Amino acid sequence: MSKPRLVLFDASALVHRAYHAFKYSRQLTVSKTGEVTSAVFGFTNILLKVLSDLKPDCYAIAFDRKGPTFRHELSTAYKAHRPETPAELIAQMGRVRQLVDAFDMPVFEQQGYEADDLLGTLARRAEAAGADVIIVTGDADAMQLVNDAVKVLYPKPGGTFSDTMLFDAATVMVKFGVPPHRVADYKALVGDASDNIAGVPGIGQKTAVKLLTEFDGIDAIYENIELIRPEKLRELLRREEAAARQSLTLATIVTDLPIAFILEECRISRFERDKVIPLLQELEFTSLINRLPRIGTVETATPGGRPNGSPLQVTPVPQPPAIECRYTLVDTMEKLAELAKRLSRVEKLALDTETTGLNTLTAEIVGLSLSPAAGEGYYLPVGHVGVEGAQLELSEVVKALAGVMADRKIVKIAHNAKFDLQILQNAGFTVNGLDFDTMLAAHLLGEKSLSLKGLAFSRLGVEMTPITALIGEGKNQKCISVCQLTETAEYACADADMTFRLAELLAPELDRENQRKLFAEVEMPLVPVIMDMERTGIAIDSEMLGRMSERLAVQLNALEQDIHEQAGHPFNIASPKQLGDVLFGELHLPAGRKTQTGYCTDAAVLEELKDQHTIVRLILEYRTLAKLKSTYVDTLPQMVDACDGRLHTSFNQARTATGRLSSSDPNLQNIPVRGELGREIRRAFVAPPGYVLLAADYSQIDLRALAHLAGDADLITAFKNNEDIHTATAIRLYNIPKEEVTPEMRRFAKTVNFGVIYGMSGYGLEQATEMTREESSKFIATYFERYPGIKSYLEATKEQARSRGYVETILGRRRYIPDINASNRQVREAAERMAINMPVQGTSADIIKVAMLHVRREMIERKLKSRLLLQVHDELIFEVPQNELMFMSELASRLMSGAVKLAVPLKVDLKYGVNWGEME
């Protein structure tokens, strides 16, 4: 019979580690109510990962109690250097306790002792009760508790709890050089800076390991003090005996506290999901819900016939009455004919596809699921392999449902419709009547989780089966095409059903939140436009990039030799640790901040040092070339589609808070612009014979949007008079005539013009220029004096965010900013910058989306052969037959400049050429 496994959590260490990890990365998790929950989220993530990976039978947690411990009474210096716990972390600790209570996890804490002492006592008691113990902590002190029955789960160096290591006696020996039972003795000698334990001054790690290898512990060292060599070390130990013994007491974990502990009362089977789920919803951790363990959970079955009898899990949160589910596997021609007849009479139809992959160019359809009403779903299998049961021929399905799919009167609904419609198009369907994409609707409504399953849970209270339950995870993951028909039918029908239900729920909310017009007139019509852009792709000259790669390899090799010569020896330039050792250890350059693994060698640090040593400039050049080569020159040719020889990106409508489209796989919005190498890479993007590339670029669209939103008279006048806006700003800032404006003055004015959009302060301008803080603050103040409308607008925008919780663009696109009223100053100021930036950038995004719709619509009406290929920031790129160039130039300029009416004119710059890098 196997031993029970008990996992012990060190609450304080884990929550503090999560808090500081998020704080350092500035990726704060903030709820819609403005509550900072980063540490709670990090702790919950750790907890769920441990339960999933280790699958313990029992668990318990130890907390530190407020107030001094016996160690503080023994030494006033103990942990005296640590700052007070931040208020927002204290509040989060309360949330952690709520979470622990919901998990029904036994809690241990005792006045005068630390969580470590509780963990040590629990570990020894559990060991005596016949359990194997794993302590989960970010505190290395726990290593002293390790033995055959007790192990410690601890982050790898520089890592988080997504990258951990399980320490047994052997790995503790590797880490410290001494066995676990001598870790406290080791710290008594070398000290522990994290706890402010002095140790013996002058004794380092090597000496401590040597002493403890020869003499088994502090007591043995002093019992054999006459044997210590050299004499200098012996006298040091004698002189510091009191410090060593006190340090040993401070470092030693207590393992015999009088606490009530019964292993059986720590069983995880006591936990009930229904107690945890409402709290996770309240904290807005819906992405974590599907990771909850199912041990000891009483599932709530949904009435109705399901293919394999497995129920949907319905949560206990207040929701509409449960809907009976009728899910049908359509596996015969008779059922298909009956379904086609049923669907021909419906008004709405939600659809979803199961595929062999996520690349719409190469993925094949495995099955189609359809839902014409809430609770009703049909699955049509067409591409399963090696499974039992009958399937349909794809051609027969296309034939039977062609009329339904093409009928514009039947409203089509999907979640991430762009994907499903491309798959269906590949399969031979013509789909008309797309009216509602639940992912786009949720995005406009400010939902954090946009996944179908996350929305089904947070909005409908339905916990759906995760895809990993069918196909597995990691290296064991399989394709859904080999999953059994009945289990796939249940999964796929639920997808279509929940999509239908979400549309019914989200549609009226779009109306209530004044988002319907933006949704119906911009976002939904844009879906087919983006689909067409993705399918078209852009041609690239792979041979040219191949030649460029060879040339860059030669240059990199030469740079590497020069760098090694400057260092005096070879080393791995790509290794931050080795590079830091060379720059700061060997060449003695001024060191900046240190990381957990060594010196920081990021671009900002090297830029500050580039004038101090030749090697730094060489390293910066090496990094630039290496990044260009690996990211673009070598990678892009590998991503060319074999069928058409073109590069196809994926445009994402629901990924940015400002509403801008983003590009991925590959990111074609991030192709380098500056420098000869950047232009050379762009020259690899080419037009086919007989065509040219036409770029239509909005001129200073963000500043024009700002002028309109702020209503500043001087800024509006400058744009209406077609003035150079940066020169005009320089004239006002320096109070000089136009002819006295120097290029440097114009650059400063440009920095401020664009900086204002991002909420730049005097400090920000100081960092961006060579000005002093006083000069930059005065410069900003002068700017607002000259443009008072902008100052008023910025303050009004921040106030709107504080009072409403959101800001919006001229088309009503919203960004919710819950942390605008956060108590933490840094969080609050970051939110203010978001509030200032979003209406401007969001308005620019709205304008170019409307322009895409207008231009594409007229291109179709005119039956032009020209094609819209890319949207890159404020620029649209077309592939145009040479005989259509003049017409397309006029069309693009006219429709883009008139896309949205502003208080200032929209200006469009046109360029064309045989490739992207040589446009005139």
User: Structural class, from helix and strand content?
Assistant: alpha/beta
Q: Which of globular, elongated, flat, extended, rod-shaped describes the shape?
A: globular
Q: For the residues shown, what is the average pLDDT?
A: 88
C-alpha Rg (nearest Å): 32 Å
User: What fraction of the residues are assigned to beta strands by DSSP?
Assistant: 5-15%
What is the rounded distance between the termini? 79 Å
Would you count the extended β strands for me? 27
Number of helices: 35
Write out the CATH superfamily name of the domain at 300-513.
Ribonuclease H-like superfamily/Ribonuclease H
How does CATH name the architecture of the domain at 300-513? Answer: 2-Layer Sandwich
CATH topology term of the domain at 300-513: Nucleotidyltransferase, domain 5
Strand order of the largest sheet: 3-2-1-4-5-6
Multimerization state? single chain
Low-confidence stretches: 296-320
Level of helix content?
40-55%
